[in-house]
Amino acid sequence: MTEPHALDIPTADDIRGLVRPDHVHRRAYADPAVFQLEQERIFGRLWIYVAHESQVKKPGDFVRTRLGGHEVLVTRGEDEKINVLINRCPHRGARLCMVDQGTSRLFSCPYHAWVFKPDGSLSSVPHRQSYPASFDLNDSNNHMQRIKQIQTYRGFIFATLNENPEPLLNHLGAMTEVIDNLVDRAPDGEVEMGESYFSVEYRGNWKLHMENAADIFHPSFVHASSVMPARKAPANASILDQDQTREMLLANGFGFKEWEGIQLNGLPGGHAYMTNIYSNGVLVQKEADPVATQYRASLVAKVGEERTAQILGMNRFNNIVYPNLIINAQYQQMRVATPIAVDRTLVRIYCFRLKGAPDEMFHRSVRFLTTLGSPASMIFSDDIEMLERCQQGLSKDEGPWVDFSRGLDSDRRDTNGMLSGAASEMPMRVQFQAWLNYLTAEAA
User: Is this model's pTM higher than 0.90 or not?
Assistant: First the structure.
């Protein structure tokens, strides 16, 4: 019987051969060996968002997620410290926890009932007298495996498998601005994640979702089925959401003016963002209503008129923190794309409360999230259909190159290395330049 072999991991030269200045080879999306390398060198080495502190407020709170190729539990220990633990029993390797989030003072393995504390240390085993005298509950080999490198930024918890990572702030770079803006929008200076979230899994590569989030050309075509009814619907007909949904659907009817009017920005490290595409509706707060007036007054009372104007003046959309985090501070939204396989991706969509803001602000944000990114969303279901069609096409050998040439000759670069442009596929090129750099870098 032959031993199973690991996939033949591509060499650095192999990877370089997949990326041209304006084209990317289909293998980047469809080759399991490339995916395995991504898990090691991107999702294993970079700082990856794993949870928000508001999800693990008290000892025993936990969240189940993924880090690189591992399923992990983010927990709050009895000592109030945050832990990231491999969701695996050290006894026989069984997965310990099958729940996405909750509270438990102890984690018990369903196989042989080894019991662990929230910090991963072994608490007890059944029939202790049957173990040898040398068996020690305090032996670290008998504990759940801990991820050592954990850092937080304003409540956002990041972890990495890299034993010698760059500082988190270096990785985030200028994208700290959007995290700051989200938190600063809360009159009490703190945000809290909603109790529940949406999960959507699609049959496609994780990069397709991150590219789509920076693509301003597709809405006119992909979302036409919802734009047309919105154009025919009477204004202010819905008392449920103050016409928010209709305005959002209308905004996807892009044309030349919109394509050329949205500024795209790409930063070193693969990060990207654009100016806002939703210019109307109650969440934009262009016209004051009682909720917006109350909210603004509460923010002014805490930080003053000038600072309030600065905070509410940030008007950006789909802020992509590479490799897999998307934040929309203005709408209190966040999406996390988690690679499951080369052709399977899980997307979780979250909503934040702004502490000190009227409750209606949170309800409007939930409505926004439902319209834009829920499993029932007319917009997101269109996107998923396109991502899966792309994966189906890229799984075949015919026509192996993907074209990202739009805007190649018109993008501008500033002295800090940031690229900007309009009507461009520059964000995809920025993402793939980072992808290329990370995959060809030697281990630190």
Answer: yes
